[in-house]
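A student in our group prepared the protein record below, which I am reviewing. What it holds is a sequence and that sequence's fold in token form. My question to you is simply how this chain folds and whether the tokens agree. Do not assume that whoever made the record got everything right. I have pasted the whole thing underneath without changing anything:
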Amino acid sequence: MRGTLSTDGEWRLPIPYEEMGKWMPAVVVALEDRRFWTHSGVDLPAIFRAVLQNRDEGRVVSGGSTITSQVIRLSIDRDRTPINKAKEFWQASVLELFQTKREILETYLNITPYGGNIRGVEAASLTWFGKHAKDISLAEAALLAGILRGPSVYRPDRHPERARELRDRLIDTLLERGVATDEEVRRAKQEPLPSEKRALPAYFMQAASRAARTSDVWRMTDRYGRLRSTIEMEKQYALQTELSNTLATMDPGITGAAVLVENETGAVRGYIGNAKEGWNIDAAWVDCASSPRSPGSTLKPFVYALAFESGELTPASMLADAGSGDGPRNFDRMFRGPVSARTALADSLNVPAVRVFRMQGGRKTLDLYRRLSFSHFRKDADWYGDSLVLGGCEVTALELARAYRTLANRGVDTPLVWAEGAEAEHKTQVLSEESSALALDVLKDTRRLLPLYNEIFGEDGTVIAFKTGTSYGRRDAWTAAVTSKYTLVVWYGDPAGRPHYPLVGINTAAPSAIRILRKITPQGTKWFDLPKGVARGPVCPLSGALRNQWCPQSIEELYIEKISRREPCKLHAFEKGSIVIKWPPELENYFKRDDAPQESQRRLRITSILPNASYLMRTEKERLELAAAGGGGELFWFVDGEYFDSSGPSRERPVFWPMSEGTHRITAADERGAEMSVTFRVRKSGAIRSDEDLPLLEETP
């Protein structure tokens, strides 16, 4: 919640009658205008009594005003004269013809002054008690009614005895007039007075300010000038808690930001502009979520999506991760040779990304970024060069959240929604439904965060696609994460732009994003259904093209029907009586380099199973580890001629085969088409034992 000063410098927080609670309306009517509900704006008995009192005292001690006439007086500034008093009574009678009693009382309680620049019962309740008007007690309502009689005279922080005496006297009056019971009065008089004024609440001011700056704010405010934002406090606190916990162990100069968007509606459900907002430190006021920063590798999925959309690539397509000494290099300074597009994007390899970017062209890429509503690309494509894909440019966390939500929204971009009940003003198909689905499918590769991912999500089936980014010099750490329900962007960095060693996306931002999504995502949330235009078919695991007669193995991979190139593999051929691989020039040169893997290192060998061995299966839950050395890239495992599993592009993920009795043949094949097979036997415990039986070390707990 955040309020702002009115144009005349006052705190006015108007609320409807229904939110004024039980006590305040009842107390004010009982003390200020007992016949309010029955008179027509002018209380003649009260006027007659006032005339007699003023005559007896020889001065004005009562004006016979009603709540309705006070609304007129507070609304129209004029001198206090008998003629103007008569005008007030006449206008009060007219007002009663056009408004209901509840509307008049609501207006009165919203415009009454409570001293200083506090006006209205809501602002007064928050100032003195730190609670909304609907939540104040009988004693608190009586105190506010007393303050109305003299805001400076009865201030409880400056004149506590005077304020308490008036409050208790008014409470006794409420008992006499049947508003409160004996027990309620007894408890009310025991309540302490507030000892000081409180600052009006300003929770998450940057989020409130950002919501108030949206184009639909004035259209969505209610008649009280209030905007109900789309931000949900439970999720807002989840973001703040995770960022604060992570920052507690980092350099004081680092802060964090996060943006959470609901995929279905585009509503912003959480926004932390600066996790250190309100701290007494430099730059705590900076809204980092709306500040341009270098995005690192977080833009790469959009370039790959362009290539998928054009049909030039599929996730299986082979790319060369090899380069020259003066060209782009990967974060770990290593080259991997031939890799699939899936591996290249999931592992955020720079060299293949530059190849894909050049394949699509700078102008086409820049046009996509602008259509995704990235607003800080003000130069032409030639000025940026390869940095358009490597992160040598600027985006905001808010823009990045909108762009990744576009992927989750099947390629349709809409403005983010900040006001509850509002809808996106326009929709634009920026990427095809199919290419968006392929890009997110690649980013589902959870092996990058093992074992953290399994520790958090276990076996509940929740799927997260995420992309990390680290800017040059470790100045920004990013993660953009997508589930079927939410899109989340997490950023850590120094508002001053200084480098810090811990600022690596996969190490800092990614764990935070995964933990946040675990807190807010319902258990077992399923992934998106693939579009009808996306199919799965057999391809060569090395080239990613259709398997030809010389390709040793095949795997199943996604492609876009009638769009993706479906040409036969050109890498595998038959020459001089054997199958050979015809590498493209960039990979031929790579294998000739001194730092390329030597032949002995490249030869694929299964290391976890002995050929022709016999293994003893002691329980039905026992599993056999499938591991190999050598070869290149991702390993694909086949059991008795059927595809079983893969070990991941960098082989971080262990593969275990549930044992079954009998003779089996296990085959390992790498991305280059190399393969090795072993045949072995599995016996059940209790069967006739052979001296060759080998006990298993791995057993499912």
